[in-house]
Amino acid sequence: MGRVFVEHLSGKAYCCKYCRTHLAKVEELLSKQFHSKNGPAWLFGQVINVVPGPKEDRLMTTGMHVVSDISCTKCCALLGWKYEDAHEESQKYKVGRFILERAHVVEASPSAQPPPPPGRNDSSVPPLSYFDGHSSDMDDHYF
Is Amino-acid biosynthesis among this UniProt entry's keywords (predicted)? Predict the structure, then answer.
């Protein structure tokens, strides 16, 4: 296996809860009105540092969608899914967008530094600062 390449975003960003890899800029958050089997989920326009799984049909409360699960590039944690297609015309706005399950993300402050590479213990790098906000808005979930 080769070296894992991860991008670091400037400014406020949402990160993987497990390894703190940056996933999306705060400005990419489109809606907090979604829900997954694990609780609240957020819709993003663009995300980075994720690996898509195979496409599959999935029945959700808003109808049948074609989705691919997305996992963190660095730690392989399942984070959410990407909407590949929607069968209902009213749901086509989701196509090409991403759901990140709230249970799997945290927000990094603009001054936060990326974690040191594996195997490096640099005490001169300040620790990351995060907050764990919570939203209970719900719109879409699958079963």
Answer: no
